[in-house]
Amino acid sequence: MACGSTSLWAGETSWFCCGSSWGPCGSAGGGACGNCRSSANHGAWPNASQACWDITRPDLCGENIPRRGCGAVMNVRHQCSGATVCITITDCGPRTKEWCGEAACCNGACRTNRVLDLTPAAFSAIGNLSSGKLPVYIYE
Amino acid sequence: MTSRQEDRRGLGRRRFLTTAALSGATIIGATALGGIDADAAFAAEPSLDPAIAKSSFVEGRITGITGSILEVAGSYGDHARVQMTNATSVWKVRATSAAAIEIGDGLYARGVPMPDGTIAADAVWVNIVNLDTQIRGIAKNRLHLAHGQHEVVGNVLPATTNASYAGRALTSDLSQLRIGQSAQVLGAWRPSDNSVDVVRISVGH
Amino acid sequence: MLSLTTGLAPLVLAGLLGWTGAVKLFSRGTVLGAPKTALARMLSSSERAALVLRGVGAGELLIAAGLLAVPANPLPGAAAALLGAGFLGYLGYGRALAPESSCGCSANEDTPITWRAFARAAVVLVSGVAAAVAHGSWWSTVSGRPAGSLGFLAAAAVVLIALSADLDRWWLLPLRRARLRVFGHPLFGTGAGDRVPVAASVELLENSLAWQAASPVVRSALLDHWEEDGWRILLFSGVYETAEGAWPVSVVFALDATSSRDTPGDPVVRVSFLDADSGEPVGAELLSTVPSRKALPLAS
């Protein structure tokens, strides 16, 4: 499936690790979909399933994020630089409800709430891992 | 060259770069406080052309260091050779140099594939982790964190560990951390004792 | 003391098994937590793991009822001992197979297999054996020695609670919070005054218009940083591309060292691209297209 250019959502993204890896990531497992890998362009979506939604609860921050299950593909674009990466959803996350109101900005235009988690491969393609979070537009 | 000469050269280079930076273009933008636009930005419909040239990604453990080349064993049995250059940024707890990298460290790298099969690295992040945790205990020089099914010890480093509270700017004041809070911990894994040096801890509302 | 232990073992064991059995059988967490258990990996199916967990829960409740109703009968005690041995075997196998899995001991999603899980399973085994060899009933022990029984039951409850990682949030975390309240926050006053951390300057830079303008050129993450005359200098590397070719460049930013994202007012960032070999400024036109910019006096 190819990544499209229809606007889906906008918000803040963080990064996480999954699959076989080193350090504390070593036992993270393949994620909710079973095939998540840190070294692939994958992502975690807060509404990957009902069980997932019950954990992440983005609605508590006013984000009624639509359901996109395992295997959904999205274009993720850094709001500031325009750098874009095409990802596949392979996990559930982030726990949006813990970070209501948190913002990441470009020149005063801010994206609020954590609505996406990217693998290190996908995150580093559009930003620096040491930044921790980025403002993004999401297309499908 | 003695280290003092190197220092002097480094200082000279820094002074040169400082002067260059200050005589460069001055750009004034809005701050994060400039207001939060909800969906207005979609109206601009930015094009989807990637602004950065296609880069390669490397993940794995460092198994050997030969000159300026890092031998990296990927977690899925793959193997990569990462070429470090003067322009490669190195993160290991902080911005540092390639000399800080050790065999056994974990690595993520972004770079450009070379004809000889190596990856010329633009940026490498050594032992970097970003964990979704809960604070279970607070002591003078460490935090006890629950990360999913594990318990992780987070080392608090003076002048390095910063915190962000409810989305505010990073500060070195850690006294507002509370037991039971959910916390995103960006830090550096220590292979020797499996603990994590906490670089940035972000807690929500 | 020995008679007290064997006499009350069925009651203690019934309490423990009744609780863990009820949680496994009736809690929604059993289904949610099942995929994370070592059992799910053994059976390679979350649904089967949830089913087995529920089955074990029902068995535990049955044994608990038997221990309460017919304590003199060795059968419930023997069954409990067998269950304890089974738990130990499962934990050992689970630890070897998937060391970071959850044990599913009380169907709680956040309890990894630690020594506490082993100790609790051992308690089940030992008290099962004690219950099997007990002759009297627990109620005759309680009525015969009420004070001693009460003390024993309280001690047993404390031991079992301490061995249950899933109960930590009810006692261990409040205890630690209370300690912070009494003795003060251990990290109070560790901050370096009102100094803005370098990471906060980098964050301010990455949110700025200057970063947006320079991002087509920047390739590395932060290479180096230092302070001079109140400015914080942040150095990156990059590639400047034109129709004629591509040049490696240094990208230098200068920001007010006391500014962070929370500082009121518009952030001022100075930026230069320098040829990596000659040190000559390049690509000024890339920065001159940025709309809002004005010249400022140099900070002294």
Q: Would you give an account of this structure?
A:
The complex is a heterotrimer of chains A (140), B (205) and C (300). Chain A has 140 residues and is mainly beta. Chain A contains two helices and eight strands, in the order E-E-H-E-E-E-E-E-H-E. In chain A, 10% of the residues lie in helices and 34% in strands. The relative contact order of chain B is 0.12. Chain B has two domains: 56-126, Nucleic acid-binding proteins (OB fold (Dihydrolipoamide Acetyltransferase, E2P)), CATH 2.40.50.140; 128-203, OB fold (Dihydrolipoamide Acetyltransferase, E2P), CATH 2.40.50. By secondary structure, chain B is mostly beta strands. Chain B is globular, with a radius of gyration of 21 Å. The model of chain B is unreliable at 32-53 (pLDDT under 50). Chain B has one helix at residues 3-22; strands at residues 25-28, 56-66, 69-73, 79-83, 89-92, 94-96, 106-113, 119-126, 128-138, 142-147, 150-156, 162-165, 182-189, 196-203. Chain C folds into two domains: 2-182, no CATH class; 198-288. Chain C has helices at residues 2-26, 29-33, 38-43, 46-69, 74-97, 115-133, 138-144, 146-162, 168-183, 198-206, 209-214, 284-288, and strands at residues 224-228, 231-241, 246-256, 268-275, 281-282. Chain C has a five-stranded antiparallel sheet. The longest helix of chain C has 25 residues, at 2-26. Mean pLDDT of chain C is 82; it is low at 292-300. Chains in contact: A-B, A-C, B-C. At the A-B interface, strand 1, strand 6 and helix 2 of A face strand 2, strand 7, strand 9, strand 13 and strand 14 of B.
